[in-house]
Design brief:
By secondary structure, the protein is an alpha+beta fold. About 25% of the residues lie in helices and about 15% in strands. The protein has a domain of about 70 residues: Alpha-Beta Plaits (2-Layer Sandwich). The strands form 2 sheets. Strands 4-1-5 form a 3-stranded antiparallel beta sheet, covered by helices on one side. Strands 2-3 form a two-stranded antiparallel sheet. A hairpin with a 5-residue loop joins strand 2 and strand 3. Bound molecules: iron/sulfur cluster. This is Ferredoxin-1. It holds the Pfam family Fer4_15.
Length: about 100
């Protein structure tokens, strides 16, 4: 099973648009001026993942980031493992058509 999603809010970046609290009211609250605070420690329940991800993606100033073993969102390692990502090894059987063409 995968690690639970974890998020962080940088309040110094928040511009008080209130979008996060609209999408995920269980995770963000707004003060009297509309600036967000996080509710809880940033751990997101699997069932709330979509709503929180929407809040993260819709925040106009990118004040919300996803944390985790791969670091903040956008710095994740590729989904394909290095072994899968390598080019297939060409053998003489594979290059037969090219050999034929060159002749
Ligand atoms: S969506 Fe972003 S800018 Fe708006 S209140 Fe939430 S954290 Fe602040």
């Amino acid at each position: 099973m995968s690690e639970p999603m974890k998020i962080k809010l940088d309040r110094t970046m928040c511009d008080g648009f209130g979008i996060c609290a609209k999408h995920a009211p269980g995770y963000f609250s707004l003060d009297d001026w509309g600036y967000a605070s996080m509710i809880g420690d940033g751990t997101v329940a699997e069932a709330d993942r979509d709503a929180v991800m929407r809040a993260l993606l819709d925040c106009p100033v990118h004040a919300i980031t996803e944390l985790g073993e791969h670091g903040p969102l956008g710095q994740r390692s590729p989904a394909v493992s290095p072994e899968e990502a390598t080019e297939p090894k060409l053998t003489s059987e594979n290059s037969e058509a090219i050999t034929e063409f060159v002749r």
